Amino acid sequence: MEVRVGVKGALRELSIDSTQTAEEIEKAVEEALKSGSVTFTLSDDKGKKLVIPADKLAYIEIAEAEGRRVGFGAV
Question: Could you tell me the sign of the dihedral formed by the alpha carbons of 48, 54, 6, 21, in that order?
Fold first, then answer.
């Protein structure tokens, strides 16, 4: 899954490719927000962890990961 996270006060969004399913990501975010947790964690496809402050969360976009495109497009 490709996950983009908007953080309040940050100029750019965070973007990772995760092995977690959309449901797992959604559940982790919901649990963190409902429980009042300070942070929540997402894992990328290389085993790295991204720890995000729950109170600074602006949005989360979850989409199927696309393969990288190589080459030039016709104009």
Answer: positive
E strand or H helix that includes residue 49: strand 49-53
Say how many C-beta atoms besides its own lie within 10 A of residue 29's C-beta. Answer: 19
Residue 4: DSSP 8-state: E
Q: What is the pTM of this model?
A: 0.73
Tokens of 43: 């894992």
Which residues, 6 or more positions from 22, have their beta carbon under 8 angstroms from its beta carbon? 1, 62
Note whether 32 and 24 are within 8 A (CB).
no
Average pLDDT over residues 45-59: 89
